[in-house]
Amino acid sequence: MNSEEELSVALHVVADGADTPPPPVDDLIRRGRRARMLARSMVAAGVVVAVVGTTALTVAAVGPRVAQEAAPAVDVAAAGGGNRHISFRISRTWRTPDGRAAFCSGGIDPAAQVGWEKGNAGGRYEIRFVGGLQYLKPAGRPWLAQPASGLTDALTCNGPVEEYTVDPAAVVQSLREKGPVEYTGRTGRGDEAVDTYRFSYSIKGGRLTYSGVISAGVTSRHVQRVTMNLSGDGVSDDFVTEFDGFGEPVRVTAPKL
User: Which residues contact 93 (CB under 8 A, 6 or more apart)?
Assistant: First the structure.
């Protein structure tokens, strides 16, 4: 069974109101592949996870350019976007099937390949990635360590795509491989101007659909916010992911084991 099938099965369990076991920490440690790894562990804990950012965009061809102020809106897929490797902070919020608030947050430096995150899905946890190792501390358990090939293997609170980046072009390009992305307009002026892109794509033969909106700063050329809805198989859940702290230092130290 692949990761998408596992997610679908887990969603059925949640939708049916069945009792769910505690998060499979050992499996989490063994398998890394973060976004899907988190989806599996969180859903098993009764939290419907939208693959941490599996916010698939529907890119029909980000164009034609639309102007709502003097300068035309940026076609990020063609213009190249911003700094693909700039550091940033990330936070995501959603609600579990029983209505409880869930979150994950972290600091990421793609260039230095270090990062950390904390969350409460399936119990409080913390993850650190430094020196090529993933350090995981599940609730009530000691630190565990294992090799990880990079941020996408070690962490789980990523954005709309598996790669850790806030470069709009990179995000749109990755998502347009799953479906069309539509430019929907610009709001604000000057440094406050934001371009938005709407996306939607389906998996499992159309039974699960990811849809949402990406907001990217025109001046900063960074993705600032992603709203996403996961629907299908009797489930409908909303996720909000926000990014800030662009270019700020991310300091991560290895814990004592």
Answer: 101, 102, 103, 239, 240
What is the rounded distance in angstroms from the CA atom of residue 113 to the CA atom of residue 98? 36
Task: Kindly state the average pLDDT of the residues 1-7.
Answer: 38
- Sorted by where each begins, the domain ranges of the chain are 3-244
Q: Which two tokens stand for residue 53?
A: 């950012």
Res 125: pLDDT:
95
Which amino acid, 54? T
Nearest to 197 by CA among 65, 18, 96: 65
**Upstream peptide bond of 255 is cis (omega within 30 degrees of 0):** no
Please report the sign of the dihedral spanned by the C-alpha atoms of residue 165, residue 169, residue 174, residue 180: positive
- Predicted TM-score (pTM) of the model is 0.69
* CA–CA gap between residue 180 and residue 42 (Å, rounded): 28
DSSP letter assigned to residue 59: B
pLDDT in tens, 118-169: 999 878 999 999 999 999 999 999 999 999 999 989 998 877 677 888 888 8
Q: Vertex 174, ends 169 and 179: CA angle to 5°?
A: 115
Separation of alpha carbons 203 and 112, rounded Å: 34
Q: Quickly count: other Cβ atoms within 10 Å of residue 133's Cβ.
A: 13
Are 21 and 40 spatial neighbours (Cβ–Cβ below 8 Å)? Answer: no
Any idea of the CA torsion for 155, 156, 157, 158, to the nearest 10 degrees? 80
CATH number of 3-244: 2.50.20
pLDDT per residue as tens digits for the range 72-122: 444 544 334 678 899 999 999 988 777 889 999 999 999 999 999 999 987
